[in-house]
Structures are given as structure tokens and as C-alpha cells.
Design brief:
Helix content is 32%, strand content 25%. The strands form two sheets. It has a six-stranded mixed beta sheet with strand order 5-6-7-3-8-9, with helices on both faces. A three-stranded antiparallel beta sheet has the order 2-1-4, with helices on one face. The chain is globular and about 45 Å long. The protein is α/β, with parallel strands linked by helices and 244 residues long. The chain has eight helices and nine strands.
């Protein structure tokens, strides 16, 4: 598998990216560039377009207009190759309830052509603390355990790009503290990460660039070294509203 640092230039390039659902404009000409190994947090209130942006970048959803390149490739022309470079963690776990834990991972391992898949499954389950539940059906797991399994699924093929839509959903406090280790352990090079979250503390601690998305538009971008957490939180509340 190609490492994140193997890319030349930008891992993700979105230019004037827009997505509409009838008269509803979920994304409005979004411009976003993410370098190899960079970590970007996207914050925004409910309905701001965060999930839509992740789905477009993950090739789950087509944009209405604009341009998108992943590792220099156009997803519309190289969809299969692009998807092999991406791991997605979202509200939807993309797991099969009636399959056992290890069967879910074996399915995705075959789909991504993972070598030494049994060893990868064992290591992945150990990393997320589910090795003792390997033969249990997914429907018997708690929501938090399913989210842990979703992380194991998304990282099974060690993708150099991780797209995370509120990855802490369902995780308890201990799980949130372990989140970064669960996501990135085993990587020789730092993966590129784009992460949406309502948890400002988590996003600011894990990412080096903080972005605010409101009504489908990026209204602010701040580098971590240029802002304190207090000033950014004040900035976010000014744009997104104190009640968010």
C-alpha cells in the first residue's frame, strides 16, 4: 500500500466544490487543499455540510459541480484506485449486522486485496480492543463497540488517507482518548486526515489545521501554531453561533 508521504503535492484538492439537493445547497464552492500527512479538523453546526463534504471526498456521493482530485487522481475517472487509498469512519459503520466481527473484516480485506489478511484482522481487533468478540455477530455489539469495529474496518488496508466524520460517535471517554492510537498505529508514515467533529477539544488536539464550515461554505481556516484554543473557540462561536 502506498504511504501518505509517497504522494507528491496534495493528497486532497477540492476546487469550487458544490453539492445541491434540489433547492438545498449543502456545499457552496468549497476550496480545500490538504497536503500529504496533514491533519485538518472541520468544525460546524448541524446542517453545515460536513457529512456531505466527507461523502464527496470519499466518492460515496458525486458533487454537483467543481473539481476534486485525490492523490492527483480524478475520482470520476479512477474511482477504484482512489477508494483503495481512503479509509472512512462515519455515522454509518458500513458493517453487516448478521456477520461476525471477523467475517466483516474478512469481507473488506478481500474487497481491498489485503495481503496476510488473517494477521491484519487479528492485529486490527487487538488494536481496537475487540479480539475477544471476533466471532460475535455485529448486531450483538454495543454502539461504541461497533464504532471501534468501524475503525478497524477503515484502517484494515492501511489507507494513506483517512476521512473521519465524527469518529468519536458512540465512544466512551476511554475510547475517545484511545481514538488516535486506534486510527494510526501500524503506519510507517503519518496518514493524511480530514476529520469533522462537534468536539472542539478533540479536533483541536488531534489536528494541525482548524476549519469552520457554515451553510456549506468554509468561513475560516486557522493553523494550530497561529491560534490558542481559547481564541479559536471564540472565533467558532462567532461564526457558528453560541448555541451550537
Amino acid at each position: 500500500m502506498i504511504g501518505a508521504q509517497g504522494f507528491k503535492g496534495k493528497s486532497i484538492q477540492a476546487s469550487l466544490l458544490a453539492k445541491s439537493f434540489g433547492s438545498i445547497h449543502a456545499l457552496r464552492e468549497v476550496n480545500l487543499e490538504v497536503g500529504a500527512g496533514e491533519k485538518v479538523a472541520i468544525f460546524g453546526p448541524n446542517g453545515s455540510g460536513k457529512t456531505t463534504l466527507i461523502k464527496v471526498m470519499a466518492t460515496i456521493m458525486r458533487p454537483s459541480s467543481g473539481r476534486l482530485h485525490i492523490a492527483g487522481m480524478n475520482p470520476g475517472e479512477n474511482g477504484h484506485d482512489v477508494r483503495r487509498l481512503i479509509g472512512v469512519v462515519s455515522h454509518n459503520t458500513y458493517l453487516y449486522d448478521d456477520l461476525a466481527v471477523e467475517e466483516n473484516l474478512a469481507f473488506y480485506g478481500r474487497m481491498y486485496g489485503v495481503e496476510n489478511v488473517k494477521a491484519r484482522i487479528t492485529n486490527g481487533l487487538r488494536r481496537v480492543g475487540l479480539e475477544r468478540r471476533s466471532r460475535d455477530r455485529v448486531r450483538t455489539l454495543s454502539r461504541g463497540m461497533q464504532q471501534r469495529l468501524s475503525i478497524a474496518r477503515a484502517t484494515l488496508h492501511e489507507p494513506p488517507i483517512l476521512l473521519l466524520d465524527e469518529p468519536d460517535t458512540g465512544l466512551d471517554e476511554a475510547g475517545q482518548a484511545q481514538l488516535w492510537e486506534m486510527l494510526t498505529s501500524g503506519y510507517a508514515d503519518e496518514p493524511t486526515v480530514v476529520m469533522t467533529t462537534h468536539n472542539l477539544k478533540l479536533g483541536m488536539s488531534l489536528c494541525s489545521r482548524w476549519t469552520v464550515l457554515v451553510d456549506g461554505e468554509i468561513v475560516s481556516e486557522v493553523a494550530k501554531e497561529n491560534s490558542s484554543s481559547e481564541s479559536f473557540q471564540a472565533l467558532y462561536r462567532r461564526y457558528a453561533g453560541a448555541g451550537t
